[in-house]
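JOB MANIFEST
job_type = single_chain_structure
chain_count = 1
residues = 184
[input]
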Amino acid sequence: MLPLLALAYFLRVRDTDGCGAQRLARLLGLAVAGMVPATVQAEPLNVSVQVPLDCAFETGSGGALSSGLIDFGTTGAAAGQRITAVGTVYVRCNLLSATPYVRLDYGQNANGSQRRLVGPSGFLVPYELRMGSAAAALWDDQPHSIGYGASLSQAVPIYGVITALPSGLPDGGYTDLVHLQLDY
């Protein structure tokens, strides 16, 4: 009501024939004499939003992880040599206060807690996954905190280590599939 009163006053001051406020009041269906409110009532307006914590592995097109490949590459390493590789997965949370934990299973070809790549004719290559560096602690199947809090997206490096390449392996590709789980 107050803005209309100010507009009506502005029109009256600007209007040369003195009828601008009355024309405006008639146009708006108001009586000029009754434009000043008798009382003003104030009410609070509560405004809120709930933001639930949500974390996920970042994905690329098609819903696949945007990263997460650990590729030991094509190797000419001799039997018994150590081979390392690193892959990175990204965790995104909508709140910096999140405390996400990542866990990895032992893979499809494991023997107990020993992860293994499987190749042609079922030949197996034992390997390890480690946290932080190729010499750091092993990733077991327990949840491990990833130290979140610096940004909404956190890189989680996973180091692969073939401690000693077995002898007598046939040519071909060797693979395993490890499932990642995100707890928060």
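[summary]
The first strand starts at residue 55 and ends at 57.
Helices lie at 2-14, 20-28.
exit_status = 0
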